[in-house]
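Pirin domain protein domain protein structure dump, as promised
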Amino acid sequence: MITLRKAQDRGQADLGWLKSQHTFSFSSYYDPEHMGISSLRVINDDRVTPGAGFDTHGHKDMEIISYVISGTIAHKDSFGNIKTLPAGEFQLMSAGKGIYHSEFNASNTEPLHFLQIWIRPDTLGIDAGYQQKAFEQSSPLTAVVTPHGENGTLKVQQDATLYRLVLSEGEKVTMDRTAEQASRHLYVQLIEGTLDINGTTLTAGDGAHLTQLASVDFTATSGQVTALVFDLSANA
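structure tokens r here:
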């Protein structure tokens, strides 16, 4: 089963310096039919004007992933991390017992476009932590976040795996899944291009919730496709 979440149907927020689209209920946007998938609680598609950003604020007991589509994030947190996160890199901040941070567009001339993702941890009150990495796209589906941090991936405190999908126009890749794997949730967030998933078409900004599929065919039907694919527990 594939349930499509069209880009234009997401929640909208416009603060002037920030334009954001919310896949799931967030802040002033509330929709009881879209409260998250498994442990995946937030996907915010954020566009920040030059020089603007989020002032210092706190988080607790949440795994927060940022992926920069264009531009650069300037990050500073209460553990002394002062980092820049350029386009194509992933950041994973484990809020745990508590962390304060700020996020700004590092440029005074160019806009910033990034996805902010929240995943509920499987254990509360862990020590806060910070991870950041650029990943070589060694295959169409490249794991970037895993529960155990294997093979140099970022480690998340949850039974969840995040892949980056990159396909050239006309290219296809198949994800075959055992019966146990098919019982898990897949969520796809398309960033660019046009993607066909088992006959369902996604355009940039669309999302899709996949359940009970033993085989998933991803085909780039127009332009280069970049997407994030979440493999999530059926029980979280």
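Residues 179-182 form the longest helix (4 residues).
lmk if u need the other ones
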